[in-house]
Specification:
Distance between the termini: 63 Å
Helix content: over 70%
Number of helices: 3
Mean pLDDT: 75
Length: 105
Amino acid sequence: MSKNRLLSRTAPAVLFCILPLLADAQPGISEFYKVSGEMNRWYFSLSDLVLVIGAISGIVGGLRIYTNWQSGKHQHIDAQVMGWFFSCLFLTLVGAFLKALYGIH
């Protein structure tokens, strides 16, 4: 028997012998519920933090647009307003998407 042919026959046999050992090492249902509970606990803290950061950056962005408008720098004001608006919209939609993704009510 050639070396390649021997290898092609023993590789699947070794794989099938090791497969039950690998399947036994997977986490169970109790670990899944534990991680899910931790995710729910951490999500509310992180979502509040993201909303605070979004509010602060929204206020700073709004003030920057206001000062540019008052100082007469009108050439890029449309791009700044759109960037400010869509960044606020993005933060709102990401929060809703993550709530739906993780099933958090």
